[in-house]
Amino acid sequence: MARIDVQMPQMGESIAEGTLSRWMKNVGDEVKRDEPMFEISTDKVDAEVSAEKAGVIAEILVEQGQTVAVGTVVARIETDVAAFASGGASASAPQAAAAAPAANAPAKSAEKTAEKPAPARTATETAPPARPRADAGSNGGNGSSLEERLRTKSSPLVRRMAADAGVELSSLSGTGVAGRVTKRDLISYLESPPAAAPASAPARPAAASAPAAHAPHGPLPTPWAGDVVEPMSRIRQLTAEHMVLAKHTAMHVTTVFEVDLTRVARIRAANKSEFERRTGEKLTYLPFVVQSVIAGLKKYPILNAAVAGTDIIYRKSYNIGIAVALEWGLIVPVVHNADDLSLSGLAKALNDLSNRARTKKLKPEEVQDCSFSITNHGVFGSLFATPIVPVPTTGILGIGAIEKRPKVRTGPDGEDVIALRTCAYLSLSFDHRVVDGSDGDGFVGFVKNHLETMPEPVL
User: Which residues, in sequence order, are bridge partners of residue 6?
Assistant: First the structure.
């Protein structure tokens, strides 16, 4: 027999672990090469993992819901189907217990405990569980051990969150692999008041930028008779954690403008059939909005910035994140260097990312390094919204429902006339720590004018 190991893949440069969220095959099922076997979730993206070779699933070593380190063997495939059918599967069960490396056992146990739903928890149990540091006695905090490197080298998102909050990751004990600090650990730390520091301890300069701790408001709700209790999916947990952190970090303000999209609607109507015939892509309103947003970000660079403690990082790359609603949650794929793309290039990129988000084909780097976000909530009929500014950006634009409305216009002789115009509301939520109201309003006003006076584009 010839069995090959299936490992938890590396889904990003600094991602050290992943959660096996769903098995799509069972032991004894045949699998073809490049056929999806299971789904994984990381703090970046949900993705399907396909078989590298054809065969039969001989062993499943990691169950659904378990979080394991990158490189952990999660299953084995028997490539000799005839040998497996003749009884080779009988020896697979005793091997399952020893599949994962012994070093990962504490981390998996802690992660699984942290993610298990606990309806009966009390308000005093919000802090992350304490974990002993294996290197505390020998390393002296010099960061040279694997555990120390994993803890301080969390995912880029966690590191940015910690920097915004003025938190030193090396001072926290995490529930990830080898004590690695996860988003859940960081949010629990921020929501729990830290212990008072000794009087002799010097104050950290970054502490002034840390958000105020939020005490839990009473006990958690408990199910009533007839209620249905379902654990949150991994993507829902991550979304919840990020939204809570975002609201605790940025000082949110929202401004709303009405924009006349009649000119854009005429350009789109005149070109969409030929565009679809030539490219195979649908021409929506979104590429026009993205192009105008990029022009606005160049004029108002504070909306394409990030806050790092008391520093402002002005991004020179225009990486536009587009919120995509999925049946199982929300994800924000990113069009990197969107200013380098033409209108047709933007349309292709947006459609491609949206389609692959819905089929779980996104790569981790395609949901990272966003500098400004857009959410098109109007597709559900919403007129306008007050979206939450994602950490660590300073603004997000919401596009309301695009519909025809009666508007007062000036006729050729200066008289007032009623005309039907294609309109929508644009709402900008921004971080008032660094974005003043004049800049927020100026940005949306610029985007509005750019859309209303847009020249005929070359598609």
Answer: 75
User: Which tokens go with 415?
Assistant: 């008289």
Domain segments of the chain as ranges? 3-100, 108-117+124-131+144-193+205-215+231-249, 252-452
Q: Which residues pair with 307 in a beta bridge?
A: 312
Q: 371 vs 56, 243, 261, 428, CA distance in Å?
A: 44, 17, 25, 14
Q: Which of 296, 271, 401 is nearest to 347 (CA)?
A: 271
User: What does pLDDT average to in each consecutive run of 10 residues of the chain (459 residues)?
Assistant: 83 70 89 88 76 89 86 88 65 42 41 43 39 37 45 62 74 69 76 52 40 57 92 82 88 97 95 90 94 97 95 96 86 94 93 90 87 95 94 96 95 91 98 96 98 84
* List of residues 6+ apart from 240 with CB closer than 8 A: 232
Is residue 184 classed exposed, middle or buried when 0-12, 13-18 and 19+ CB atoms within 10 A define those classes?
Answer: buried
The whole-angstrom separation of Cα 431 and Cα 438 is 13
Instruction: Please identify every residue annotated as catalytic.
Output: 432, 436
SS3 content of the chain, % helix, strand, coil (to 5): 35, 20, 40
Residue 74: closest CA among 18, 147, 114, 112: 18
**Can you say how many angstroms the Cα of residue 399 is from the centroid of all Cα atoms in its chain?**
20
According to DSSP, the residues that pair with 7 across neighbouring strands are: 73
pLDDT, tens digit (0-9, with 9 covering 90-100), for 131-177 = 333 333 333 334 444 455 454 556 666 776 777 777 777 777 777 65
CB 269 within 8 A of CB 285: no
- CATH 3.30.559.10 assigned to 252-452: yes
The CATH code that applies to domain 3-100 is 2.40.50.100
Max Cα separation, the chain? 91
Q: Measured at the alpha carbon of residue 451, what is the angle toward residues 446 and 452, in degrees to the nearest 5?
A: 100
Q: How many CB atoms lie within 10 A of CB 295?
A: 18
- Residue-wise pLDDT for 354-408, tens only, equals 999 888 888 888 888 999 999 999 999 999 999 999 999 999 999 999 999 999 9
Instruction: Please calculate the CA angle 306-319-434 and round it to the nearest 5 degrees.
Output: 20
